[in-house]
Amino acid sequence: MDIVAMKRRGERIAALTAYDYTSAQMIDAAGVPFILIGDTLGMVVQGQDTTLPVTLDQIIYHSQMVARGSQRALLVGDMPFMSYQVSVEDALRNSARLLTEGKVGAVKIEGGASIAPTIERLVNVGIPVCGHLGFTPQSVHAMGGPRIQGKEPSAAASLVADAKALEAAGAFAIVLELVPATVAQEISRRVSIPTIGIGAGPHCDGEVQVFHDLFGLYSDLKPRHTRRYLKVAEDIASATRQFIRDVSEGTFPGAEQTSDLGAEAKERFRA
Ligand code: KIV
Ligand code: NA
């Protein structure tokens, strides 16, 4: 899937996270062109409060499962917290592991102009990089929570400058998370690479959503930026109650789920 060409052709890009073989298979077969193995897995799969504890080995493990389920989509693996910030060497070695062991086609790195030199080195050795600006969850403690970024004119201007820096460094796309729609629109106009929004309004070149949000795999919280296409958590809960009833009432397993001896063999066996 050539994501950059999609922007050139004016095609909007739908992106979704996946963390395992089963979910990757379903969304890949349905035709999503961009699958992100996001460090959101720390929250939606592991049940942690932030993405910070997710390790490179875990992203690699989940990427391998997604790769087995995916035929067509571009797979993008998140570089976890502290896997690329300490040194360019770390970033090179760790991204290479994600590509070679995790079988992704690209990595995603959070940050603006200050991380651009690292991105440039990765791109120069042949590692495609997706940027990530706005609310960057690995900086949740510094940002004081999941807040919209770039509301002040000066902050908006520096987001635009960050996007230009990522483009100049060779990033092939930029995720814009929790950014005012007008700022996201301006960035999308000012860079030639696709912007992929989440909580960034309708003017980005694409939209990325978290699998568990979009399909309702939990019933408690719903971020404002998502739309629930399914209520899987509720369906699983009621199906589970039905299964418990069926087992306790003895209606499951039934004849369809059962194999048995033939009449004659049954006679002989019982005799
Ligand atoms: O980890 C993730 O799922 C992400 C998306 C929300 C963009 O970074
Ligand atoms: Na992420």
From TrEMBL:
Cofactor stoichiometry and binding remark: Binds 1 Mg(2+) ion per subunit.
Superkingdom of the source species: Bacteria
Annotated Pfam families: Pantoate_transf
Location within or outside the cell: Cytoplasm
GO molecular function: 3-methyl-2-oxobutanoate hydroxymethyltransferase activity
Pathway the protein takes part in: Cofactor biosynthesis; (R)-pantothenate biosynthesis; (R)-pantoate from 3-methyl-2-oxobutanoate: step 1/2
Listed EC numbers: 2.1.2.11
Sites where the protein binds Mg(2+): 39, 78, 110
Cofactor(s) in the UniProt record: Mg(2+)
Keyword Metal-binding annotated: yes
InterPro entries for this protein: Pantoate_hydroxy_MeTrfase, Pyrv/PenolPyrv_kinase-like_dom, Pyrv_kinase-like_dom_sf
Catalytic activity: (6R)-5,10-methylene-5,6,7,8-tetrahydrofolate + 3-methyl-2-oxobutanoate + H2O = 2-dehydropantoate + (6S)-5,6,7,8-tetrahydrofolate
Xref: Gene3D superfamilies: Phosphoenolpyruvate-binding domains
Entry binding sites for 3-methyl-2-oxobutanoate: 39-40, 78, 108
Protein family membership: Belongs to the PanB family.
Entry function: Catalyzes the reversible reaction in which hydroxymethyl group from 5,10-methylenetetrahydrofolate is transferred onto alpha-ketoisovalerate to form ketopantoate.
PANTHER family with a match to the protein in the record: 3-METHYL-2-OXOBUTANOATE HYDROXYMETHYLTRANSFERASE
Subunit structure: Homodecamer; pentamer of dimers.
Protein name per UniProt: 3-methyl-2-oxobutanoate hydroxymethyltransferase
Species for this entry: Steroidobacter gossypii
